[in-house]
Design brief:
mainly alpha, 5 helices, 3% strand, single chain, 2 strands
């Protein structure tokens, strides 16, 4: 991941600190048990709860990573499509070509009998891709 969403960075930082807090809580439970302030049963129950919380956090972290990877794949596919729209156009039927045309030229194509085809407005996404040095592998 090259440029991560700032919101995701903050969430990842918070999530990475939470397991540390749980591990500290686990140490504290053991310390209380050693000091005879917790029974063996209470210690085991607390440790199970903490371990379950750690497992839940790990699953949430894995899910968040998968979600980011899926979004990156979607963006890469869109960039690949927009940078190779001509190839999709050549392979597509009339319905596909109409969809590509509407995507790239959202205001339609301009035609005047006296002037012929005019310069059409490109979609913002297509303009952005044209300016971007990013390449999809």
């Amino acid at each position: 991941m090259k440029n991560q969403d700032p919101v995701l960075e903050v969430l990842n930082k918070l999530a990475s600190k939470t397991p540390d807090a749980l591990h500290q809580k686990k140490s504290r439970v053991i310390d209380l048990f050693i000091e005879n302030k917790l029974t063996d049963e209470m210690k085991d129950q607390k440790l199970r709860e903490i371990q379950n919380d750690i497992g839940d956090l790990e699953l949430q972290r894995i899910d968040a990573g998968s979600e980011v990877a899926n979004k990156e794949q979607t963006i890469d596919s869109a960039v690949m499509f927009l940078t190779n729209a001509d190839q999709f156009w050549n392979l597509g039927d009339l319905q596909v070509r109409k969809g590509i045309q509407d995507l790239i030229f959202p205001d339609g194509l301009y035609f005047s009998c006296s002037e012929g085809f005019g310069t059409a407005t490109l979609s913002q996404s297509h303009q952005l891709i044209k300016k971007s040095p990013r390449t999809v592998t």
